[in-house]
Amino acid sequence: MAGRRALGRRFGWLWAAYAVSSYGTGLGFGAFSVLTVLVLHSGPTQVAALSAAGRAVGAVVAVPLGPWVEFRRKRPVMVAMDLTRFAALMSVPAAFALGLLTFAQLLVVSVVVAAANIAFNAAGGAYLKALVPPEDLLVANGRFESTMWSATVVGPPLGGAAIGMFGPVTTVVADAVSYLLSALGIRAIGGREPRPARTGAPRLRAGDLLEGWRHILTHPALRPLFLNTIVVNGLIMASEPLLAVLLLGRLGFTPWQYGLAFAAPCVGGLVGSRLARRLVARFGQHKVMLTAGVLRACWPVGLAFVRPGVPGIVLVIAVQLGLVTCIGVFNPVLATYRLDHTGPDRVARTLAAWSVSSSAAIAALTALWGLLAAVTGARTAIAVAGILLLVTPLLLPRRESAPGTARKRAATLT
């Protein structure tokens, strides 16, 4: 299993930092929605606007961060982004304690955190590529993926209990502190990191902002994967609030049933991420990614047929379990494939462009599907998303591209 392979002390600190921030994020899942409803007494429109606008504006703010990160040492950037997220989130309990918390502040904080997330992930991916040998990248990405799903299983239920016992800002504090601990863990990695050599103009140019997208869209393997992932992620995430409305409203699910229906299947993500390396070793990277990418698109349409009572809960759990297991296999293989096919001098810009596009697509499709549900109903909108997902495997690359070819191609473009 991937977890038994030793990757060294420095990776251990990086993994520990990722783990503590992941569990903090799990504990803080939905905290801003809770604050918006329980403290600010806002309606569903404002709750949805907070989620969509924070992600969309954060993505726009993050556009220049990819080139900025590319030509700087990655660990200091990661520490700075962790501290930025810590400071932004801690402003929320401070304002709450003073009775000054507003919707505008939550929106600003969500934008700052979203932008810092993108910058951190861009720097983290580039740092991981330099830290871990190519043959161990899948092991490392599998560990990150399994940690994320473990945090998703454990964090939200514990966070809900903590809010009930200690108040609505408790999990925000926990999330903020997790970023502080993550910064300390990354700082403890130690070692010297060389400053990346900048080619071309000494200052940031307009063309640098587009370099990540240029690399993705001109790469024969990354382009279809990019289009596939942003559409799939956007349609899945756009359906989530509509499913909440359907289950908690029309079908009468209780909050604990709703939580169980989404927390229990996350075990599949843990299983899938642990299986990814074995499957790749047996069947090959491209075949596993293609198969998992096809299978993950087949499940969500089943959510349109959910009914009240125990059969409905069982159906949601079964569909989500299948979906999350396939995602758990697909994501670490995709992350490894993307790093393998991107030169070291383009990793941060490529990952930032990918994250910005994904966040923007999720925000846009969430808003669009909200309008569709208003016209046709939540169940119909969920069904439309499921049907469209069935078409997305056509965007997956049919042929395998060798990393060596990508490196030669990147060299010719430099």
Summary tags:
414 residues, globular, mainly alpha, disordered C terminus
What does this structure look like?
This protein is an all-alpha fold. Helices cover 77% and strands 0% of the residues. It has helices at 9-27, 31-39, 44-62, 65-70, 74-97, 103-131, 137-166, 170-187, 206-218, 222-250, 255-263, 266-283, 285-296, 309-340, 347-376, 378-389, 403-413. α5 packs antiparallel against α6, α7 packs across α14 and α9 (206-218) crosses α15 (347-376). The longest helix has 32 residues, at 309-340. The two termini are 39 Å apart. Mean pLDDT is 85; it is low at 404-414.
What's the count of strands? 0
Head-to-tail CA distance between termini: 39 Å
Integer-rounded radius of gyration: 21 Å
Largest sheet: none
Q: Helices and strands, in N-to-C order?
A: HHHHHHHHHHHHHHHHH
Helix share bin: over 70%
Instruction: Using the alpha-carbon principal axes, give the shape.
Output: globular
Topology:
Elements: H1 9-27, H2 31-39, H3 44-62, H4 65-70, H5 74-97, H6 103-131, H7 137-166, H8 170-187, H9 206-218, H10 222-250, H11 255-263, H12 266-283, H13 285-296, H14 309-340, H15 347-376, H16 378-389, H17 403-413
Brief summary:
The chain is mainly alpha-helical and 414 residues long. It has helices at 9-27, 31-39, 44-62, 65-70, 74-97, 103-131, 137-166, 170-187, 206-218, 222-250, 255-263, 266-283, 285-296, 309-340, 347-376, 378-389, 403-413.
